[in-house]
Design brief:
By secondary structure, the protein is α/β, with parallel strands linked by helices. It has a single domain, classed as Rossmann fold (3-Layer(aba) Sandwich). A 5-stranded parallel beta sheet has the order 2-1-3-4-5, with helices on both faces. The protein is globular.
């Protein structure tokens, strides 16, 4: 069975993107599509980036665990809010921390916003950063506009069947990229 890591990138108080990360974890597990685990950057509470992992003399155990989970994953889903047209520093921090772990790793992006565009302004900058790390960004995106309208106060989808239909297409593209990556050298 495939192993999918879901990175919940917001560390803000009252963050809303985390419900989307939880949704993906539940979707993958409920449909028996893969093993799934959320790597919550709020829980990791990484220090500000000062050097790539491979050059650190004494990386923390949490850093090593995080890196190993990304390395061992068949694919990654990044769930990120849009902050002023960009993605949070917490996400940039861990992207820069890792190097080899991103190389040829299929990465799907879900953006989240209170507004009508669903975080679409952040997609290009995040894709560019991941391309520079040699990650394989999945062409399908999963923008979540007006997150408060799509999820109730308990974090459950208001229209689960509609969201599941979108998720099925998004996950299918991630799995195609995983299959391609496993087929041989890129």
């Amino acid at each position: 069975m495939l192993k999918i890591i879901i990175i919940s990138s917001s560390v803000r108080i009252n963050r809303k993107s985390h419900v989307v990360a939880s949704y993906f974890e539940n979707y993958l597990l409920e449909n028996d599509l893969s093993d799934a685990e959320i790597l919550d950057l709020k829980k990791y509470n990484f220090p500000l980036f000062n050097e790539r992992l491979r050059f650190q003399e004494s990386p923390s155990p949490a850093t090593l665990t995080f890196a190993e989970k990304v390395r061992e994953a068949d694919g990654v889903i990044i769930v990120t809010p849009e902050y002023n047209g960009g993605y949070p520093a917490s996400l940039k921090n861990i992207i820069d921390l890792l190097t080899d772990e991103w190389r040829h790793k299929p990465v799907a992006i879900s953006t989240v916003s209170d507004g009508i565009f669903g975080g679409s302004q952040v997609i290009t900058s995040l894709q560019f950063t991941l391309w520079k790390m040699k990650a394989l960004t999945v062409p399908a995106m999963f923008p979540v506009p007006r997150v408060d309208d799509l999820f109730n106060k308990d974090g459950l989808p208001v229209d689960k069947s509609a969201l599941d239909k979108r998720a099925a297409s998004f996950i299918k593209e991630l799995f195609k990229c995983i299959t391609a990556a496993k087929a041989g050298p890129l």
